[in-house]
Amino acid sequence: MAQRLDAREAGFAQAFAALLSAKREVSEDVDQAVRAIIDDVIARGDDALIDYTRRFDHLDLRPEDLRVRDEEIDAAEAQCSRETLDALALAKERIEIYHRAQRPQDSMSTDSLGVTLGWRWTALESVGLYVPGGRASYPSSVLMNAVPAKVAGVPRVVMVVPTPRGETNPLVLAAARLAGVDEIFRIGGAQAVAALAYGTASVAPVSKIVGPGNAYVAAAKRRVFGQVGIDMIAGPSEVLVLADAHANPDWVAADLLAQAEHDPVAQSILVTDSPALADAVEAAVRRQLETLPKAEIAGASWRDYGAIILVESLRDAIPLVDRLAPEHLEIETQDPEALAAKVRNAGSIFLGSHTPEAIGDYVGGPNHVLPTARSARFSSGLGVLDFMKRTSILKCDPGALRALGPAAIALGRSEGLEGHARSVAIRLNL
Amino acid sequence: MAQRLDAREAGFAQAFAALLSAKREVSEDVDQAVRAIIDDVIARGDDALIDYTRRFDHLDLRPEDLRVRDEEIDAAEAQCSRETLDALALAKERIEIYHRAQRPQDSMSTDSLGVTLGWRWTALESVGLYVPGGRASYPSSVLMNAVPAKVAGVPRVVMVVPTPRGETNPLVLAAARLAGVDEIFRIGGAQAVAALAYGTASVAPVSKIVGPGNAYVAAAKRRVFGQVGIDMIAGPSEVLVLADAHANPDWVAADLLAQAEHDPVAQSILVTDSPALADAVEAAVRRQLETLPKAEIAGASWRDYGAIILVESLRDAIPLVDRLAPEHLEIETQDPEALAAKVRNAGSIFLGSHTPEAIGDYVGGPNHVLPTARSARFSSGLGVLDFMKRTSILKCDPGALRALGPAAIALGRSEGLEGHARSVAIRLNL
């Protein structure tokens, strides 16, 4: 079972530091291969896409087959159950409402010197959304990536999704249509990332690429960064449940396992001031694992990376939470708001016993693309701002230039940039 | 002199595409060396810092000398002219006011289903600011990086700056104090980046590293990314001046040269609908180069990367501007606001003839750390948001969970994540 740490015992600091620095990512060295694929797509365009799709996805395509046709999406929708489509529609609506509130304000004003200044936000021209094929092909992730882009006002959202042996997840296509995705291509891997970054005859290039993928996709995104923007590189997922003696151990156990079933390297941690709860949760995890379909994955995750940390008081837990900076933080205590207010580093917080993290994965409204592997110390979940950029604006009238010019000249000269100074001085006859 | 392109001539599309794809960055392959330095700092801490500082900066330090002392900053300030210190203070005040307006709003509300949701912004715990030594050691950049961090509320801002042979730029120390920098260390290169990311006995680690540097610093930042956050990797700087027949050719030429004097790989471009202005600017550039102290650098930049592009009408210029996505865009035309409103991609816009870009470099208020090398298509200049992160918050009451639960269960099952479904179902006795 998961390891136990006790903050009241000697050696805790070291054990906690070891937990913090445990490497959960398997880093495959695929950079060589990825570089060759990208260069080939730049050189040969669609032909390279078709060759790699034959090799990796065992699928023969003509250039005109690269793009998924509307009739195929119609057919996919028809395959989905009404119940699931309704659930997707509810999710889409709630995600849209939450993200609309994130739309930023422009600012423009004129100060007492006569300087008009501020900024303007604009949407990116185009965005590419990578959706993995196979096991990790989640319709909910399509919504979480595409809806904020559309709320931001991105005119062209392009989805790529590999369809190994022609297999498509119908719900992924349905989610794409629901979210307003404009183009869908049945390509994946580093070749799809290269096509989005550099363009081919069939795939026009985009300004930014988002979405999760395997080691090849991640390496390709790192490599094309600069040519286009990219989102964060997602690591394995984690949850930290902070619970007191009043929490329901079965519910807590279910939440820990919901995280653990994602991946053998997912991490579920319980922090509690109640030794009785710790024992009860541990027993409940064991019991629930017996009937969980993904027991093998979840069991491995809990055994290898799970942890139960006992603290003297819940207040002592806050510095531990901040150092772990969990992607998901559930607070199942008597006064969750008071504890939440003290936390600095967490990707998302789920308050109270009736907010299992799975609600946030699907239909809560907030984004489920969140900073992993302690990066909540310095980054945020995906949002509307990731699909917009800010242009600063400055205008001096002649009086404003007279007021500010001498200081600019002085600073330019102090930095040895006489050309800077002269570009101001020439306008002031100085 | 700079190349001329004419949008009305055959072959323009190709020539413009070549201008867009011209590689201006010299990519040194320093990754091997940087990896070794970082590993050594992780292993040996201060000892490694001291060794590398001896080797690269020709400076012998004891551990207690790594940090710059308050008395040294006092002494540095005393060396600066009153005029320059006053100019710095004006710059700091204006940068602070501009960035205060960028502080984001938290959001929290309860919807009709009983779901309480929103988000909270918090400042990063600590930030490291890299300041180059030597020629590119700019006090204005200290302000542009440190002031937004302090406006964001970062409690601990740490500056590193190499001092080759013990040489310090007094204005850099004065600017650091003015901006509220909390700690200054006289270290540079990959070893300084490693110290900020991983910590040593003398340098506590930070959450994010910002600021420009040479190829070693850039490679080190890429390598520690993940362990800490980093800002964008800055490329060579550029300006695009959009001007009509009414613009003053001497002023335009001065602005083009102010950009060009930064770096032989800086890029200055004039786009105009007036052949007469094009000729007059070209002549003025030649004339002004004769007396410019940095004529060698500016002349090389103008010769190798400068361009004058003639367009039929100013409206035709907009798609070219958007494809170039310039770091700095000056609009010196009769109605600059109307043209600015049509631009999607630019890091910053300077409106009218009385707003030379140098004002924005120093005392305008907006940040001068801006997206280079066409990255304004997908990214923004430095701002307060770069020093904060957003935590999403979700709370369901029992009724809200009953309302949303079934949809979450359906979606969890549709994705093969039964554990997700069960974490909801167990609370609803489903």
TrEMBL record, chains A, B:
Domain of life: Bacteria
Xref: InterPro entries: Ald_DH/histidinol_DH, Histidinol_DH_CS, Histidinol_DH_monofunct, Hstdl_DH
Any single GO BP term: L-histidine biosynthetic process
Residues annotated for substrate binding in this entry: 237, 259, 262, 328, 361, 415, 420
Pathway per the UniProt entry: Amino-acid biosynthesis; L-histidine biosynthesis; L-histidine from 5-phospho-alpha-D-ribose 1-diphosphate: step 9/9
Entry keyword annotation includes Lyase: no
Protein's job: Catalyzes the sequential NAD-dependent oxidations of L-histidinol to L-histidinaldehyde and then to L-histidine.
UniProt name for this protein: Histidinol dehydrogenase
Species, as recorded: Microvirga thermotolerans
Lineage: Bacteria, Pseudomonadati, Pseudomonadota, Alphaproteobacteria, Hyphomicrobiales
